[in-house]
Amino acid sequence: MADDRFDSIIVGAGPAGITAAKDLAAAGLSVVVLERGQYPGAKNVSGGILYRQPTELMSPGFEEDAPLERPIIEQRYLMLTEDAMLGGLFRSMAFANPPYNAYSVLRAEFDRWFASKAEEAGAEVYPEFTVTDLLWEDGRVAGVTTGEKDGELRAHVVVLADGANSLLAQRAGLHREWNPIDQALVAKELISLPAEKIEDRFALPAGMGAAYEIFGESTSGMLGYGFIYTNKASISIGTGALLHDLIDSGRNVNDMLDRFKKHPAIAPLLQGGETVEYSAHLIPEGGFKRMPQLFGDGVVVVGDAAGLVNPVNREGANLAMLSGNFAAQAIIEARARGDVSAASLSRYRELLDESIVLKDLYKIRNTTDFAHARPHLFNDYPKMMANAAGEYLKVDGVSKKEKQQKIISMFKSVPKKQLLNDAWGAFRSLT
Ligand SMILES: Cc1cc2nc3c(=O)[nH]c(=O)nc-3n(C[C@H](O)[C@H](O)[C@H](O)COP(=O)(O)OP(=O)(O)OC[C@H]3O[C@@H](n4cnc5c(N)ncnc54)[C@H](O)[C@@H]3O)c2cc1C
Question: With a 6 A CB cut-off, is 182 part of the ligand 1 pocket?
């Protein structure tokens, strides 16, 4: 039989799929990418922090011509109660000079640019093609179909880069149905604001950016967080929580985002801005313990489809790129051996295991379970700390000694065993 197969078909033109496509094409393999959006990035709703170092590894010199928004020089971690906000910030002038640590990006623009790099390397990228199912031959994945006449394409290896809640990974038998505890649902808006207003409100030097992550009231106390990232002339704002908790509490993310935007500590940052984009999306947060099988005969799973997201450190796009790169390496080696069986493609998992991707996900493997089992972390503690700070800062004729005692008694209202248990549990789950 004449071999009319591509070396690889990639489903999804996000950072995982495009990195795999670029690397495979650069190695001289025939690659086609099918993307359901109107263009790569059209369906993406990422908050938009992109780390420089991994992106530079995947696309050397990207800062010269990639559409980037602002280098991030400040990170804030904040806690919100109904009427207060408190927290910590890190601003570094080292982050304000090249080489930058991270940029805000608009993924609709970045992904489109990134896909053009894969095309330059020789990959064929076809938007507006939705893969509906896999093709099988002799018990192995042998291609994909769009469900239409002439919609069948064959390949030696299919790369599933179709993002969170991958239906195709299930079709490939690599994953059971995704569980609501494994996914966060996030609503996000892009709000346009003039650059000078952004710089004034966030106290930023011209052209520089900030990233805020905000816990507590931003998610109605559920496990998750709100975020605000500054772009050149817009703000990305969003909030989300585990799907399981949203379903359980009957809350929806749209209302949660509206409440977050109206909070008296947040609203002034957005005032006068105009919402130019709204979207909602899943983030796989099941982590190391709930990853699917990552390879099979003629198939590998990368990026969000494989659950490769680090929610603690807000890393998804970089892990997606790295996984695409490792998948490409494994496929190149497998094609050179003429063996694309699961055993041969298991090299992909080996490369991931040796990398920061799985080392980091392994390190935080218990964090979600730890935090989910303790709803008071994002409910009671922010309120207690805000009350303590309010008491401490208020000048009201009460002596400092009395204030100190009041604050101590606030903390004493929490059983000592619980405090120790939470502190120890947090330490254990993060180290
Ligand atoms: C609100 C939000 C904020 C985030 N913020 C950050 C952040 O600040 N920093 C960070 O690093 N990560 C962030 N992430 C995570 C990050 O967006 C993902 O980890 C990353 O995009 C994963 O890349 P991917 O290529 O695996 O999947 P995606 O980027 O989701 O790409 C998958 C692609 O597959 C396409 N597709 C899906 N099904 C099909 C099909 N059947 N046929 C054809 N095409 C298909 C989709 O249209 C999409 O283009 C955020 C995510 C969300 C939702």
Answer: no
Contact 79, 380 (CB under 8 A): no
First to last CA, the chain: 54
* Atom number of ligand 1 nearest to Cα 284: 19
Query: b/e map of 301-313 (b: 16 or more CB within 10 Å)?
Result: bbbbbbbbbbbbe
Q: Tens digit of pLDDT for each residue in 232-272? A: 999 999 999 999 999 999 999 999 999 999 999 999 999 99
Sign of the dihedral through C-alpha 330, 335, 336, 341: positive
Q: Is the CB of 44 under 6 A from ligand 1?
A: yes
In whole angstroms, give the CA distance from residue 315 to residue 317.
Answer: 6
Which residues are within 8 A (CB) of 63 and not within 5 positions of it... i.e. 6 or more apart? 52, 56, 98, 100
Element (H, E) at 170: helix 167-171
104's enclosing H/E stretch is strand 102-104
pTM of the predicted protein model: 0.95
From 166, 185, 283, give the residue whose CB has the most ligand 1 atoms within 8 Å, as the site to mutate.
283
CA dist 411 and 415 (Å) reads 9
Mind giving me the DSSP string for 65-97? HS----BEEEEEEEEE-SS-EEEEEEE-GGGGS
